[in-house]
Amino acid sequence: MRPLNRPAVRRDPAPSRLAYRLHRLALTPSVRRGFTVGLPLAVATLILTLALADADRRQALGARVAAWKLAIAQREEFMVRQIAFRGGSDATTAAIRERLNVDLPASSFDLDLAAMREAVTSIDAVREAELSILSGGTLQIAVEERIPALVWRGPEGLVLLDAEGHPTGALQRRRDRADLPLVAGDGAPEAVPEALAIIAAAHPLADRVRGLLRVGARRWDLVLDRGQRVMLPETRPVAALEEAIAIHEAQDLLSRDVLRVDMRTPSRPTIRMAEASARTMRQIRLGELGGD
Amino acid sequence: MHDLYRTQRAMRAMRRAAMQRGVIAILDVGTSKIACLILQFAGADRPGADDGIGSMAGQGAFRIIGASTTRSRGMRFGEIDAMRETERAIRTAVQAAQKIAQTRVDHVIATISGGSPRSYGLAGEIDLGGRHVRDGDIAAVMAACDMPEIGEGREVLHAQPVNFALDHRTGLSDPQGQFGNTLACDMHLLTVNGTALSNLLHCIKRCDLEVAGLASSAYLSGISSLVEDEQELGAACIDMGGGATGVSVFMKRHMIYADSVRLGGDHVTSDISKGLKIPLDRAERLKTLHGGVIATSIDDREMIALGGDSGDWERDRRKVSRAELIGIMRPRVEEILDEVRARLDAAGFDHLPSKQIVLTGGASQIPGLDSLALRILGPQVRIGRPLRVAGLPEKAAGGAFASAVGLCLFAAHPQDEWWDFEIPADRYPVRSLRRAVKWFKENW
Hints:
The complex is a heterodimer of chains A (about 290) and B (about 450). With about 290 residues, chain A is α/β, with parallel strands linked by helices. Chain A contains 8 helices and 14 strands. Chain A has helices at about 15-25, 30-50, 55-75, 90-100, 115-120, 190-200, 235-250, 275-290; strands spanning about 80, 80-85, 105, 125-135, 140-145, 150-155, 155-160, 165-170, 180-185, 210-215, 220-225, 230, 260, 270-275. In chain B, about 45% of the residues are buried. Chain B is globular and about 105 Å long. Chain B starts with a helix and ends with a helix. Chains A and B meet through helix 1 of A and helix 2 of B.
């Protein structure tokens, strides 16, 4: 009696030559890496390439992505519904509104704050602007305005200038800003700080000052009423003006019939008199000399 | 001779390349089992690698990352008998080890246990003329050893310088840089049967592996099982394998003699099989579970069921006493030990200062072997286990793996062999240089 459960053939535990070689190949580092990294990558690339080869599918995918983006951008949390201004006059605010020209409500993703800030600061009246989107859908624009310091009668009419010479806006009538001094002449905006210093120095004559005239874009004339002018030098004009005022206070110079006080050479002030007075003066001098 | 020199040097270069790559396999092709260990060498990033002293005397330099054993097939007396079968067994072992190590190995260091190794002691001498010994002199003195008649079809497996003598001082391990008149050298030459060797090489090559080194199994068991002072003072290591028993004698840390007896544990198994009329695998099981060599009175009463599934109930129910089993095993073990004794006597082992004998190998695990060996081999006998190396699994730490562990040590620190020194050039470069100088002198 032989037991029936004995296996007919004993299995050979040895790997076949092919199995042995394949196993060794699988254990080769480069092959292993190729299998674990390279092959999945290649398959993924292949699938993607095949899927995107169809133009319709590409378009559909693009549309879907765009829809997703829109859905996120249009969420209530990201919507901007109003603009709040901080600082700045009504005229400036209106100018900014006109310049920005944003359609509200808009998604905060669509607002390019840097470009908007650029646009706002390009307005003459705005010195500095700060834009921020606040929670609650508010676009806040904090504006620091330029403060006009002078009125310039330029080639294009009356222009307001701030203390740095930057235009802040046009002026219709001189009357509107009678409180500001007037300057005129080419190149006046470039010398505004100097002009302000001269005007400050001319405060003893304040009621008589009509304005400042830039001559040859290099020096100033202080224009007074009755057609009088104080011609100031290119350098140190304030000192020259103070000297002229000192002469005026001592000898009442500007109350006399003088047309020009020439301070262009500060060490030698010169005056030009009105023609009639000059003739009268001459007669008096001749009488004194007993000539003619 | 030069051919061998070249192949051995090529193997050395390959071993170095494998160590550079960091992974090398150890293949112990024995008669009863084939063991494959995969060593990983730590690179230069190992802490303390630059101080020149490795941890654990340099054995910390490697770690075993894969180990597998398989039953050997197609082997007899440590030689390949059926190459296809052996190749399959090697493939099994290598594949399993690679799977454990999760890496591929291309280089393998192998051992040969059979091939009837034969030892020769050579002596060479050169005249130095009172100057110091240079690198080339070592090679020259080794080349001065006259080659013995090793016989047709035999190959040199080891050629190790074991001793240098300078004038009247002998026992120098490294004479380089010392002054003297005559430099003499003793060399130990081990030859094996060329066919057995080339069969093994061919078999390994058929498994797509490159051989990066070859060593005798008797030598490897010695370096793994003998402790340092035994190697220093003189000891014999007896590696009792399945089909062959290797004998190696060490003195001053060098192997000075090696031999092998073509008897082993498989013969004990076949004796049991014949004596008790049971199949070989049953006999092997009886031997490992109940075997012994010293019978005591209790063994008469301990009955062992022979078992078996021959279909004959009467036959399968037989029982033998353990004393009977011992009675079968003991004469064969005695015969093996007697053979070993005869080899040691022939080698002059009695003249060594210390006559320590260490038994190792799979067959050394028979209970009572040490007391039997005491009577036959001499008073100083112990059963040895191989050194522990990092990462070696516990099941591969027994005496049966002595030569595999020895191979690991050999792979990490091979001993200087004759072919590690530059072959002495026949003054050819000097002469050509002189000729060039002469040509210059004549023409200018």
